[in-house]
Amino acid sequence: MSDQGSRVIAVVVNWNAGGLLLACARTLVEAGAAEIVVVDNGSSDDSVERLEAARLATVRVVRAGVNLGYGAGINRGVAVAGAGHVLVCNPDLLLDESCIGALVARLEAEPGLGIVGPRLRNPDGSTYVSGRPFPSLRDALGHAFAGLVWKQNPWSRRYLQTSWDRSDAADVDWASGALLLVRRSTFEQLGGFDERFFMFMEDVDLCWRARQAGWRVALEPAAGAVHVVGASRAARPYRMVIAHHRSLWRYSALRWTGWHRAGLPFVAVALAVRAGLVCLAELTGRAPVHQAAARLTRRSR
Q1: What are phi and psi of 51, to 5 degrees?
Q2: Do the beta carbons of residue 91 and residue 17 sit within 8 Å?
Q3: Nearest-CA neighbor of 190 among 211, 218, 173?
């Protein structure tokens, strides 16, 4: 184990991730995480049993018994883990062997950096769009609605920054909570994730609060990982759609100030309409993320 890896605890929140959980844990071991805490949110599949049967020496399982949500699960894992920077990790991540070392090197080289994420790839090798700006109201609404039927619309392109291949190191407003290295002092200062977000937007909120507290957030392209996307989402798509839109509303209600707050009733109606449209897409099998996740989950069984 490298000296850099010895300063990292990985916390993975699992909910019915199937064989992806074990695959993720193995890559965390190979990448040198000193300790891996898996918080299981009441899974009904055999993902934890597969993990325990593998007897990975650095893995510890915490059975929550119920679905705490993602941020609350991370907080539970950090509370029982040892000292070290916190590697927040989805169970559907496959880390490159050099990933943790590169993240730690970047974090410890820059004292003002509180959170750093890797360059994430989709399973087909394309770039996963982690590292985005906090969206303006115009871009948020344009991305939310036009993005359902017109993927290359200007609002989505601006918000997702699709012209940027993430090959250069850069500060960002927020990075995906699928895989983040958080300085331990930053995590403790912020009080961890806001548990009012059951799932989705907790990463945006954490990065927002970090930046408000004077910490920087960045991407490190030398650190890489593959994000399968949506292993848990595929099992309960409608519940995840509702949770996503609730979190979007909660974030707007918490963070919008000034004249933006006058638009909150409109946003509530718009989000309800959008949630219905996304559920309809799931029902008719036209949700591409759900389809891809379902295929990859089946392959892992």
Answers
A1: -65, -45
A2: yes
A3: 211
* Cα gap 292→287, rounded to integer Å: 9
Tokens of 220: 């490190």
Q: Is the pLDDT of residue 285 over 60?
A: yes
pLDDT, position 5: 53
H or E element at residue 273: helix 264-283
Contact yes or no for 25/53 (Cβ under 8 A): no
Q: How far apart are the first and last CA of the chain?
A: 30
Q: What single-letter amino acid sits at 171?
A: D
What backbone torsions phi and psi does residue 179 show, to the nearest 5 degrees?
A: -155, 110
Question: Two tokens at 36?
Answer: 């891996």
CA dihedral sign, ordered 146, 150, 153, 159: positive
How many angstroms from the chain centroid is the CA of residue 284? 26
Segment 78-84 mean pLDDT:
94
Give the span between the Cα atoms of 187 and 151, in whole angstroms: 35
Place of tokens 């907790």: 202
At residue 297, does pLDDT exceed 60?
no
On whether the pTM is more than 0.90, the answer is no
Q: Domain 5-131+166-229's class?
A: alpha beta
Burial of 240 (0-12, 13-18, 19+ CB in 10 A): buried
Handedness of CA 194, 47, 7, 179 (dihedral sign): negative
